[in-house]
Amino acid sequence: MQVVLNEQKLQQAIGAALHELSERARTSLPDTGTFTALSSRFAGGALVDGVGDVELHVAPLSGDKGKQERYFEVRIFTASGAGRSSMWVFYGKTPALKELLKNEATLKGKIRAAIVAEAESLQRHELT
Known about the structure:
The protein is α+β, with helices and mostly antiparallel strands. The chain is built from three helices and four strands. A hairpin with a 7-residue loop joins strand 1 and strand 2 (51-60). Helix 1 (7-28) crosses helix 3 (104-124).
């Protein structure tokens, strides 16, 4: 099953969203403590079959008493926006997350893989 409709534009959209999120994370992500979640979205409908928006999301782990754990998640919304599927591409401490954000090529590959996997999951469950 072919999920990606336009590979080049998908790579461009991932790159732009990742760049935006990375810049905000580098300047505003604390090493410890809580913070307001950071996210960047792009329209994925013309890029990936059965998908609406795609969101890159960084947030603190709820329930973390030391307030040091963070996660980076890729969220895929249905075309209607009524449903979503998500996958973590990172879990750990802020310094490791900031280091990962510097390696755009690796992270773009992980994000693309998560988008494809979650789009296929939405299709299997007929949530598109």
